[in-house]
């Protein structure tokens, strides 16, 4: 089997699980997309097509929802995702130096994925953990009270 | 950490100055230095004290003791007694009948600072949020029991109206009125929605309620549903709040299991079913009609209003949408009565308010205090002063859609009416406190960047206005702006305010107006002199001849 077919099978399985969990309800499109996105890392075109078919929702509508929400991605992402808060509360306590350190250490700008596919850097709005700003989240790990000099050590923890 | 232990305020209104308050100020300074306590005490003049017979007066925190009328010669004794030995200088204390308005209100709270008054956060951090029995042991579900067995829906609404509770999501609309609107709408089906899409930058009060006391929201929603005639509810939680989602789901399961949710609750014939819906990352979904669209499985684009959700909400049915913090006040109002609640806070804005304290201060975090506290009190008492004793420059209230508050408004009581009279907004209660190492152009640029990213794109004034305003601020921050740009930005801000479909676009221009009103010279320095006075912006060297 080619890797495409394997991926195709995996998409089917993930979609069936998500649709079953939410009983195939059209109004549950967002939680379904969230779960598929979580399991596959992003929402490939084939997944959106299949969801459109399974839920009987026009493709245009599925795509319009998938592309609207920040936590859903329609393009592939790296192995690790860094969500950096660029809102004012983190900015004021030194966030502007932390993002510079992330950019220089990773060699990518916000919105980009490194060429080796290891990192995706996302500048995001407030993450709701402002008491310990500046803040970023790598995958599911939260880092708070970050200074620019800590950035290389934190990044080195990820393979 | 060097933190102040006391705050001393001297009345600095024209009348007090005439009566010698500047001399009193200097005498205080001298005494502090003489006793070597100048670093432990913050000393300021306040201009807004109202008319009193006790002028000039001095207020000492955290005890909130008011001394007056004072003479310069009283000061050595006052400082030595109260600030050095820690005893109240009883013979100098102003008598209550000489005090009016806000100062009298302070007097009435004497001794209660710096203690917080917790209603919304009463149980958060005290009970086990994953155990319904712990909630019940702490008087949980009592209010729901009372409502379902002793009160008619109209009586519940009357009580909420009488309490004077106003919506805590930012707009400050009277909660009881909203309930009455939904209650009066005739329909076979009504919904209640809890807005837990807390996305205002710097705001995390709702998260702590949901994570720490999830049953209080279930109880409040059931009460609200009974009052307005709804039998089904949704909590819309922002996608990033995974723990809050899990805890609330567990709480719902537990409540269903023992019959506090479901059919025929307390044998009253009242049915209430509650669902959770997680967002997927969109600030605009905090707008109630966008939130409703999102629950329906669509893009979170705000609807055109009217019709309002109170008549045409979720699936086109009458829908009551309340913020988490608003709802968390409800059980206590039912248990202790409207009169009790009305005595807290200020007459125009009763109750407490949660504030998230952030920025260049010694202590950040969440507090809950009576409405009407001032920014200076928050900074000096709860935040323990500015970090490194830096100078306070401005505060950004209420997340991105609030206001930039200059130092001159530090003594304005933070309640809906006083802030609205001063032309600023309290918003969600985030207080981002900035010292003078921050640049207003840079801050406004960050805020406009937020709005341009979060604009849903449905209406063009907001979609294009936020982008263009950001581009202009970016130019100014590089030293490439022109004076004409300032007029263009004001024009953009006005257009967004007047023409945008929802609150996001309507408030997006506020930072621009605020910085031009209060910090115009600093903005102009970027353009005319090619310098950023705070040294933050990276001005291109070649741009100024």
Radius of gyration of chain B: 25 Å
What is the share of helical residues of chain A? 40-55%
Look at the structure and give the mean pLDDT of chain B: 91
Shape of chain B: globular
Terminal CA distance of chain B: 44 Å
- The poorly predicted ranges of chain A are none
Major sheet of chain B, described briefly?
5 strands, mixed
Hey, roughly how much beta strand do the residues of chain B contain? Answer: 5-15%
Q: Regions of chain B with pLDDT < 50 over 5+ consecutive residues?
A: 110-114
- Report the strand count of chain A: 4
Task: State the major sheet of chain A.
Answer: 4 strands, mixed
Distance between termini of chain A? 29 Å
The strands making up the biggest β-sheet of chain B line up spatially as: 7-8-6-5-9
What's the topology here?
The complex is a heterodimer of chains A (159) and B (545).
Chain A: H1 3-21, H2 29-40, H3 45-55, H4 59-66, E1 80-85, H5 88-106, E2 119-124, E3 136-138, E4 141-143, H6 151-156
Parallel strand pairs in A: 1-2
Antiparallel strand pairs in A: 1-3, 3-4
Helix pairs in contact in A: 1-2, 1-3, 3-4
Chain B: E1 6-11, H1 14-18, H2 21-35, E2 41-46, E3 58-61, E4 65-67, H3 75-84, H4 101-108, H5 132-137, H6 142-150, H7 153-163, H8 175-184, E5 191-196, H9 205-212, H10 214-228, E6 232-237, H11 242-257, E7 262-265, E8 270-278, H12 288-295, E9 319-323, H13 324-336, H14 338-343, E10 352-359, E11 365-370, H15 375-382, E12 392-397, E13 404-406, H16 416-421, E14 430-435, H17 440-454, H18 460-477, H19 483-499, H20 503-508, H21 510-518, H22 520-529
Parallel strand pairs in B: 1-2, 5-6, 5-9, 6-8, 10-14
Antiparallel strand pairs in B: 1-3, 3-4, 7-8, 10-11, 12-13, 12-14
Helix pairs in contact in B: 2-3, 6-10, 6-13, 7-8, 7-10, 9-10, 9-11, 10-13, 17-18, 18-19, 19-21
């Amino acid at each position: 089997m080619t890797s495409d077919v394997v991926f195709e099978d995996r998409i089917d399985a993930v979609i069936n699980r998500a649709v079953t969990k939410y009983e195939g309800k059209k109004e549950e499109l967002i939680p379904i997309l969230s779960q598929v996105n979580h399991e596959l890392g992003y929402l490939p075109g084939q997944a959106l097509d299949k969801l459109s078919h399974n839920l009987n929702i026009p493709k245009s509508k599925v795509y319009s929802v998938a592309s609207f929400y920040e936590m859903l991605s329609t393009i592939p992402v790296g192995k690790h995702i860094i969500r950096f808060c660029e809102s004012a509360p983190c900015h004021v306590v030194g966030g502007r130096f932390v993002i510079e350190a992330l950019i220089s250490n990773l060699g990518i700008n916000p919105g980009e994925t490194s060429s080796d596919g290891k990192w995706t850097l996302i500048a995001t709005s407030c993450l709701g953990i402002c008491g310990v700003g500046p803040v970023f989240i790598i995958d599911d790990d939260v880092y708070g009270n970050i200074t620019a000099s800590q950035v290389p050590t934190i990044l080195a923890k990820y393979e | 950490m060097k933190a102040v232990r006391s705050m001393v305020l001297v009345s600095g209104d024209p009348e007090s100055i005439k009566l010698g308050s500047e001399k009193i100020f200097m005498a205080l300074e001298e005494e502090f230095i003489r006793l070597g306590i100048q670093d432990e005490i913050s000393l300021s003049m306040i201009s807004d004290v109202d008319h009193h017979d006790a002028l000039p007066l001095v207020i000492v925190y955290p005890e909130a003791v008011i001394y007056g009328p004072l003479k310069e010669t009283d000061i050595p004794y006052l400082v030595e007694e109260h600030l050095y030995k820690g005893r109240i200088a009883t013979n100098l204390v102003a008598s209550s009948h000489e005090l009016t308005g806000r100062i009298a209100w302070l007097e009435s709270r004497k001794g209660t600072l710096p203690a917080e008054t917790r209603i919304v956060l009463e149980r958060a951090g005290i009970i086990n949020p994953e155990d319904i029995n712990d909630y019940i042991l702490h008087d949980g579900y009592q209010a729901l029991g009372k409502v379902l067995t002793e009160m008619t829906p109209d009586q519940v609404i009357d009580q909420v109206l009488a309490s004077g509770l106003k919506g805590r999501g930012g707009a400050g609309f009277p909660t009881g009125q909203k309930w009455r609107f939904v209650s009066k709408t005739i329909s076979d089906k009504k919904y209640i929605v809890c807005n837990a899409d807390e996305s205002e930058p710097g705001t995390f009060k709702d998260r702590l309620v949901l994570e720490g006391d999830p049953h209080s929201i279930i109880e409040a929603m059931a009460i609200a549903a009974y009052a307005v005639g709804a039998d089904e509810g949704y909590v819309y939680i922002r996608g990033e709040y995974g723990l809050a989602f899990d805890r609330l789901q567990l709480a719902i399961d537990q409540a269903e299991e023992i019959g506090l949710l479901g059919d025929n609750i307390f044998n009253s014939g009242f049915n209430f079913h509650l669902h959770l819906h997680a967002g997927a990352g969109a600030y605009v979904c905090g707008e109630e009609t966008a939130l409703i669209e999102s629950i329906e499985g669509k893009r979170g684009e705000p609807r055109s209003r009217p019709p309002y959700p109170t008549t045409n909400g979720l699936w086109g049915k009458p829908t009551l949408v309340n913020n988490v913090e608003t709802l968390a006040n409800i059980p206590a109002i039912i248990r202790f009565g409207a009169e009790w609640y009305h005595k807290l806070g200020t007459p125009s804005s009763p109750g407490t308010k949660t504030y998230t304290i952030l920025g260049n201060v010694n202590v950040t975090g969440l507090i809950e205090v009576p409405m009407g506290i001032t920014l200076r009190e928050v900074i000096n008492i709860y935040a323990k002063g500015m970090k490194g004793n830096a100078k306070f420059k401005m505060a950004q209230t209420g997340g991105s859609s609030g206001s930039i508050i200059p130092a001159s408004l530090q003594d304005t009581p933070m309640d809906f009416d006083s802030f609205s009279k001063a032309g600023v907004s309290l918003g969600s209660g985030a207080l981002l406190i900035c010292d003078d190492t921050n640049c207003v152009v840079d801050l406004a640029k960050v805020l406009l960047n937020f709005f341009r990213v979060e604009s849903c794109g449905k209406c063009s004034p907001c979609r294009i206005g936020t982008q263009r305003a950001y581009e202009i601020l970016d130019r100014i921050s590089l030293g490439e702006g022109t004076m004409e740009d300032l007029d263009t930005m004001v024009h953009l801000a006005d257009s967004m305010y007047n023409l945008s479909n929802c609150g996001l676009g309507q408030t997006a221009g506020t930072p621009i107006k605020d910085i031009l009103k209060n910090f115009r010279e600093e903005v102009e320095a970027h353009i005319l002199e090619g310098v950023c006075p705070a040294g933050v912006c990276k001005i291109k060297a070649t741009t100024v001849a």
